[in-house]
Each structure stands twice: as structure tokens, then as C-alpha cells.
Amino acid sequence: MTPDQEDRAIGVVVASAAGDALGSQYEFGPALDDAVTPEFGVGYFGHARGEWTDDTSMAMPILRALADGRTLEDPGSLDGIVAQWRSWSLTAKDVGAQTRGVLAPLTTPTAAASYTQSEALHRSTGRSAGNGSLMRTGPVPLGYLHRTAAELAAAAASVSRLTHWEDDNSDACALWCLAIRHAVLTGGLEIRAGLDVVFDGMPQSAPRRARWEALIDEALTPGAHPRDFREGNGWVVRAFQSALAAVAGATSLIDALERAVRGGNDTDTVAAIAGSLAGAIHGANAVPQEWIGVLHGWPGIDAAELERLALRAAGPGGGVA
């Protein structure tokens, strides 16, 4: 990898954590005017200034598995991720309702048990499309920079279904991860190309693909803002559109994260999602040092450790078959 690609790989994780922490105190709040500059503060659920929330905490086991050279096709890797999620959820300040509904009943926290509970919960309620799998998906592409796009899409969907069985979640995570991979490798924003990968060979995929094409077009409409998708942005589709509008309409990484927070409602999650893609485009060097200095969270990790883990995950020893 070139130095610029390494910087962008680090940016995926660091900028996502920064967006998460920046949006924490504004969670469930109203949309903000452009004149308002979001600042770090005490979160809605009591997270300290600069402390990330469940969005980044749930990404950590994925990042650590890839940094250790494990692949997400390995059942043992997924078992470890689920076990860490389950342990974390017992004392976490906040756990999403869908995620808690899957993890809480697991007496043996394995991937197989998680998939079973995830599907059962979806079948019993008829829906499971919260944004909780998209918020944590940022690290996945780092282990697939040297592998095929199809392998990445499959891995993203597989990790998503551990807690969110809905097709919308699998599609959103795969599309987002493919955009992150493209951005790390090239520095550019390209979201539509992932449609060819995600829906290639999928039986009766035409209506599903057409729907996502329309959703992406809506988010990329000139002048679109995360505020336009505030209502229901706890839904994975609206969170996807909010984050995409934040990134596509931004002039810088800081602008992207501030736009995401100004959208209102689920601000930390939208900003975390936006940060993973904005960081892949602009790189970690675009994250202000004063932000870097305050970032921290479970499990006792700071920005320096995020950088180390991201480099290991993206390098030849991490997540590469």
C-alpha cells in the first residue's frame, strides 16, 4: 500500500470514531442549522467528552480480528466477535434494541447461535432493519483490500446478519463497504459501482437493485442534506442515505461529520457511518489533532491504538487470504 492508501485506511476507523463521539451529545435531538458548529460533549447516555458509543465499540472486535490476521469467513473469528459483543453488552451504557434482542438470550455466544436468534427475532417481528449493523461495518473492508469485491460484499452481509437479518441491512453494509474499499484504494467516492457486485447473479434481483438505485440517487441529489432524511434515520436505509448525503455534499472530512451531526435524531450513528467513508476519502490526516487527543472508548483504546489496528488489518498480515 502507498502512504496515502495507508492514511486513508487509518481514516476509516479514526474518522468513524470521531464522528461517533462528536454526535453523541446531540443524539435524539433536532436538526441543527448550518450556523451551529457541533462540539464534543457529554453524550446522551453519559459517554464522556470524546468517548465513542456503541457504534464504534461494536466495530472493535471486527477490527481486532482482522488485525490479528483472521478472516471473516472463519467461523472461529465470528464466534470471537459474538462473544466479545455479548460480554460488552452486559455493562455497556447503551445497546441498540435489535442488537440486545439478539445478544441477551445467548447462553453460548457463538456465531451459529447468533444467526439463529437473529433470524428468529426477525421472523417473530417481521422486521429487523435498524441501523445497528451498518454503524459497525467500517473495519470490514480493511481486511479485503487485496481480495475480490464479491468476497467483501459476502463478508459484509455475513457480519451484518449476526444481529440484523433484514435484506436491507445486508445490502446497505455490502454497498457501504464496497464504497469504502474503493475510496481507500483510489481516494474517490463511488457508491453506484457496488450495485453490480451486490446484485450480480442474485435471483430476481432487478426490483431490489432498482430500489437501491433510486435510494442512492435521492441521497446524491444536488443540495441533499442529512436533515432531509432525519425522520426514521434509525432505519438502516435512512441512515445510509443520511450518511451518503453528508459525505457527498461535503468539502472536507470535518464538513462531512458536522453535516451528519446537523442532520439530527440518531446523530452519533449517522456520523459514525459517514466518518468511515469520509475517512476513506480524506484520510486520517484530515482529522484535527484536537479531536485525536480526546478520542477514547471500549475496550480501553485511544486514537493511537485505532491507527495501529487499522494498519495491521489493512496490511499483508491482516485479513488477507
Automatic annotation (TrEMBL):
<dbReference type="Pfam" id="PF03747">
    <property type="entry name" value="ADP_ribosyl_GH"/>
</dbReference>
<dbReference type="InterPro" id="IPR036705">
    <property type="entry name" value="Ribosyl_crysJ1_sf"/>
</dbReference>
<keyword id="KW-0378">Hydrolase</keyword>
<comment type="similarity">
    <text>Belongs to the ADP-ribosylglycohydrolase family.</text>
</comment>
<dbReference type="InterPro" id="IPR005502">
    <property type="entry name" value="Ribosyl_crysJ1"/>
</dbReference>
<protein>
    <submittedName>
        <fullName>ADP-ribosylglycohydrolase family protein</fullName>
    </submittedName>
</protein>
<dbReference type="InterPro" id="IPR050792">
    <property type="entry name" value="ADP-ribosylglycohydrolase"/>
</dbReference>
